[in-house]
Design brief:
Elements: H1 5-31, H2 34-65, H3 69-101, H4 111-138, H5 142-169, H6 175-220
Helix pairs in contact: 1-2, 1-4, 2-3, 2-5, 3-5, 3-6, 4-5, 5-6
Length: about 220
């Protein structure tokens, strides 16, 4: 049996999140960087979000295979609700990033290994973000698209970590300034996603009511 494209993409994203979390934890141990460690925990939250969104996609696909128009509409509304939840998580992250940047920094060892590792991490996360957003749009899956935007936020936070490491090489500590810039970008992304998710929820709710009325009228004929 051919696995649905949405599920394949979501499972691939979950595998990538697991791998990236492990890599970041390993880099944090090798370099002693608390910033990389914090980014590793952020990747762990990405994994949890991906698991939640995968469950909503599975529910929607099951309703599509049952050819239940009402079930599809309700499942779409569930996806929209989870998209809103993801947007709220994104809007919280700027506060977390700024708070981390204000903490006292420790001496970092093997800094070039950390820079190379974070560069590789950014490349993988950027690819997965693009894949999820495109697949979500192609398959009309707001949950998968929202997960892609959430991964895009992870790209920005990882870039912030990379810039912090590079600055340490030259003895320049601009963590707070970098954090504010990244936080502003993340906040803007979160607001955009939240507005889109709320609009999609309103549309899906109207669709569910229309389908329910249609099925009700057909049953009374």
């Amino acid at each position: 049996m051919i696995i649905d494209k949405r599920i394949r993409t979501s499972l691939l994203a979950i595998a990538a999140d697991l791998s990236l979390t492990f890599v970041k934890l390993l880099l944090a141990v090798v370099t002693g960087s608390s910033v990389i460690l914090a980014d590793a925990f952020h990747s762990l939250t990405d994994l949890l979000v991906s698991l939640v969104l995968l469950s909503s996609i599975v529910v929607k696909i099951s309703q599509e295979r049952r050819n239940s128009q009402l079930g599809i509409a309700v499942a779409h509304r569930l996806e929209s609700c989870l998209s809103i939840l993801v947007a709220v998580v994104i809007l919280y992250l700027p506060f977390e990033i700024i708070n981390e940047a204000q903490q006292e920094k420790e001496a970092i060892s093997n800094i070039w290994l950390g820079i190379i590792g974070m560069t590789a991490v950014i490349s993988v996360v950027a690819y997965m973000s693009h894949l999820k957003i495109c697949t979500g749009r192609d398959t009309s899956s707001p949950a998968l698209e929202a997960d892609g935007y959430h991964s895009l936020v992870d790209v920005f936070t990882s870039i912030a970590v990379l810039l912090s490491l590079v600055c340490h090489v030259f003895g320049v500590y601009l963590d707070s300034a970098i954090a504010i810039i990244i936080a502003m970008v993340i906040g803007f992304s979160g607001v955009q996603l939240l507005l889109a998710a709320v609009k999609d929820f309103i549309n899906s709710e109207a669709l569910a009511k229309t389908v329910a009325k249609s099925e009700c009228s057909q049953s009374t004929v």
